[in-house]
Write a structure and sequence with these properties.
Strand content of chain A: 5-15%
Radius of gyration of chain A: 14 Å
Number of helices of chain B: 14
Structural class of chain B: alpha+beta
Largest interface: A-B, 19 and 21 residues
Radius of gyration of chain B: 33 Å
Oligomer: heterodimer
Shape of chain A: globular
Number of helices of chain A: 6
Order of helices and strands of chain A: HHHEHEHH
Strand content of chain B: 15-25%
Largest sheet of chain A: 2 strands, antiparallel
Helix content of chain A: 40-55%
Amino acid sequence: MAAEPKLSHTAALILHAVDSGFVYGFSIMEATGLPSGTVYPAMRRLERDNLIASRWEKQAIADAQGRPPRKYYKVTSDGKTILAAARKRYPLLERFIPAMENA
Amino acid sequence: MTPHRPALLKFACGLLLRVAGLLLPERDRREWRAEWRAELHYVLGRCVSHWACLAFAVGAIPDAFCIRRHARVSRTATRCLEGLAGCAALIVAVALLLPAVRQQILPPRWQGPADLVAISFTPSVLGSGTQVSAGQYLAWSTHLHPSLSRTAFYMPVSGTAELNGRGETWSVGRATENLPALLHITVRESLLLQCRRAAVTPLVLSRSVWLRDFGGKTNVIGRPMRFAGRPATIVAVAPAMDSALPMQMDAWSLETGEAIAAIAAHRFTYGYMLAQRTPVSSIADRGIARIDLISDDDTPAYLYVIPLSRFADYRRKLPELDFLLSLFMSCLMLPALLSISLRTGLVTERLSLRMRTRGWFFLFAKIALLVPLLYCGPLLIAYVLAGGSASAQTIQTFVTIAAALLSAWWCLEDQRQRCPHCLCKLTSPARVGERSRSFLGFSGMEFVCAQGHGLLHVPDYPTSWFASQRWLSLDSSWRVLFQPGH
């Protein structure tokens, strides 16, 4: 990457939430307390900047549970680098959102 | 939560997602909707409040805008035409929903009796040639042409009609008593007789006045009122036939034979004479025909009979003629008011025929889509500002001219700001020039096509060596810089 993007606090919070195991939009909304109109556009920008990547859940798994398939997000290696820098910049990020297993 | 509420909520949220999805380019729409539907499924399953569910769905709108911005679709030619088509469809739909405006756009065809004609000195529906004097009417009525069976006459006067304590100025035709029968308007004989006995003027309302001043109420028959200071009674409402008469009236007052004779005693009392053709008449059904005059009066030797359908046809075309006249006036004013031209050195290279055709097609498509907007928009504005009053026509004409000028300016300016290759709007400045102290350096803006087709140099002020904007094409080796990811 030529120039590392500087994340806003909201974008860093969302990136941290994805890294913490909140892997789809609604769970990120619940974890961060941000509205859908903020979370989804921020995720689009993070995905555009290649900081997170998305994949669709397999149809068979969703069908077995009788629900529509979801789109899951995960932090890319670039995203992890940027997130590490963001954690230094916003040291309270980890207090806002504990890791999924501790939540 | 009642059982039908979740379904309604799901429908409302689904509708919001569907509408928001229209903002997206088609290639992204399906996946975007699938993601939002899946998320909505979980939100609805959580049994959070209705408002929370709706607020979640509303969030789809900024998300759609975000994707739209990333996709840079808002500046393409297709989006421009889609936007214009959407606006045109919306304005036309709103205009058609309002009955008064719809009547202007789609005036009803004349459905009245085909055997009614107007007697005129000239073979035209325009001008004062259609007027005859009351004296001439009386003379011709007594020596009726064999092609005509019945005649009636009305003379326009204006006066104040007093309605519920307020005064309205009406144009009323002082008509012969047989006018309603000729026009197939039913009048109760008893009511007419009652009026005569009480020396009250019987009034026949036109449909437009009945709708405008009486709200279309059915109980107006027999209602007393005052017109021009005289007591009057409404005896009938005419069907929608105003447009078919030589002169449109707000109402007709039915006068006795003596009153008409008194009117005829004055030399300069002009009005309109209507007649009915005989079933075996040789006069053509829809055409204007000439009849020889059988009268010893000092009048021309022949007259014309004009079917009433001709007046209706002419008035049906009036809004279109007004619109075309407004457009014509705008075209005349355009060069004086706007200094935009399409041949200001927009392109310094020779474009292929295909590209030039596409550019011209885009320009004409924009103009074609603006026409319904220009026709219906001013009608709506005039209706909102002036309702059915006489000033509505003036407002409509002025708004049409102003809107046409604005649209022409926008069409040309938009065309000049687009890449001639992909027709995308050039909004990315590559260089902002500073004003040159020696006037030798370039001062202006340089825009770059987002797909790397070229650069548009727009001077801040025209100089002898750089008078107008110039397009500089970049060769294909530059395209790699404009690929996604760079």
